[in-house]
Design a protein that fits this description.
It is a single chain. Strands 2-1-3-4 form a four-stranded mixed beta sheet. It is elongated. The chain starts with a helix and ends with a helix. Helix 1 runs antiparallel to helix 2 and helix 1 crosses helix 6. The protein contains eight helices and four strands. Helix 7 links the parallel strand 1 and strand 2. The protein is α+β, with helices and mostly antiparallel strands. It has two domains: 99 residues, Peroxidase, domain 1; 70 residues, no CATH class.
């Protein structure tokens, strides 16, 4: 779930990178994602760069030693340190990814089935979703045997549940 804070920073970074061209957008996305992974693997880093007992200058110098000082992502981290927003980095990276997908007319879709789809089924689903959404579709497939059959499709804030389990639960609800 995106917050107003993460959205503001992601939009600003996206606009700045977009002015520099598609290569800069890709580089910013990659650098930002790498930073977010590093922070998620090292929660103490977030705490260190957020400590009010260490001056902003000292925290920025620590970040410069870790991330350098040339990339848009590292400059964003310095800004986050300065404004006490370091804990929002993961959310900002997620928002930036969403903006990139939208910019590229691409949608990430999570498809849950009881058994793996064969390539033909996957391609038919991709084509149908592409027609519906008018976007290039990237499918991430999950297997969940508890849905018994059918398919659950999630994209953005939309969830389409056409699973056997859902239909049985709905029928059970109607009968009770």
């Amino acid at each position: 779930m995106s917050s107003e804070v993460s959205s503001v920073y992601a939009n600003a970074l996206f606009s700045l990178a977009k002015e520099k061209g598609d290569a800069a957008l890709q580089e910013a996305r990659s650098d930002l994602r790498q930073c977010a992974v590093l922070f998620s693997l090292n929660p103490d880093l977030t705490r260190l760069l957020s400590l009010p007992t260490i001056s902003v200058t000292e925290r920025t110098e620590i970040a410069k030693k870790i991330f350098g000082d040339q990339s848009l992502a590292s400059r964003l981290i310095f800004l986050l340190i300065d404004h006490g927003r370091v804990p929002f980095l993961q959310e900002i990276a997620d928002d930036f990814d969403e903006k990139m997908l939208d910019y590229q007319d691409t949608a990430d879709v999570i498809v849950t089935t009881a058994v793996a789809m064969n390539p033909e089924q996957k391609e038919r689903l991709r084509a149908a979703l592409s027609r519906k959404l008018h976007k290039t579709i990237r499918i991430t497939e999950h297997i969940d045997r508890s849905i018994l059959g059918g398919v659950i499709v999630k994209y953005g804030d939309t969830r389409i549940d056409n699973s056997v389990k859902y239909r049985l639960d709905a029928l059970r609800e109607q009968l009770s």
